[in-house]
């Protein structure tokens, strides 16, 4: 199931990684509550193995972290990757599974020790938008202060301690 966490999550990481005044509040959303959530998986020997998440920003594009697209500095093979939308089940049951065409990592990500951890994934076909599949609403008014606002984090969370 997808876990939605009230952001400003206090994690088990060091204080430098903590979010100020946060709290951990896991929730299990109903289908359609986080319609922008994407599960990225790798297909190996006919089975899909989910490894990361992202947000649908366009019917054919997913925003994710660059660290989700590589291991030890080597990019994953896009032809083995899939994106699943329209489900709250980590196994993809009930959703649309779409092959990944390609992806782009911020070029500075592999060149730096930290930061620039952002990437986009291009799908081989458009996701079919509907009640359970929608684009995430991005904040575009940079003049509006966000201090004190509530933010939410959505993801599939840790499964079986991994």
Automatic annotation (TrEMBL):
Position of the signal peptide: 1-16
Keywords from the UniProt entry: Disulfide bond, Hydrolase, Protease, Serine protease, Signal
Any GO BP annotation: proteolysis
GO MF annotation list: serine-type endopeptidase activity
Ranges of residues in domain Peptidase S1: 19-162
Pfam families: Trypsin
Family classification: Belongs to the peptidase S1 family.
Protein name: Peptidase S1 domain-containing protein
């Amino acid at each position: 199931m997808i876990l939605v966490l009230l952001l400003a999550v206090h994690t088990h990481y060091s204080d430098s990684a903590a979010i100020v005044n946060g709290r951990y509040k896991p929730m299990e959303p109903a289908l359609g509550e986080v319609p922008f959530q994407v599960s990225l998986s790798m297909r190996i020997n006919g089975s899909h193995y989910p490894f990361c998440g992202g947000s649908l920003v366009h019917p054919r594009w997913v925003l994710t972290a660059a660290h989700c697209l590589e291991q030890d500095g080597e990019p994953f093979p896009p032809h083995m990757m899939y994106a699943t939308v329209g489900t709250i089940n980590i196994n993809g049951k009930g959703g649309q599974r779409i092959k990944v065409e390609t992806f782009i990592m911020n070029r500075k990500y592999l060149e730096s020790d930290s930061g620039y951890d952002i990437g986009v994934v291009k799908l081989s076909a458009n996701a079919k938008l509907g009640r359970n599949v929608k684009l995430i609403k991005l904040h575009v008014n940079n003049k509006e202060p966000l201090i004190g606002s509530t933010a939410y984090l959505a993801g599939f969370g840790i499964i079986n301690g991994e």
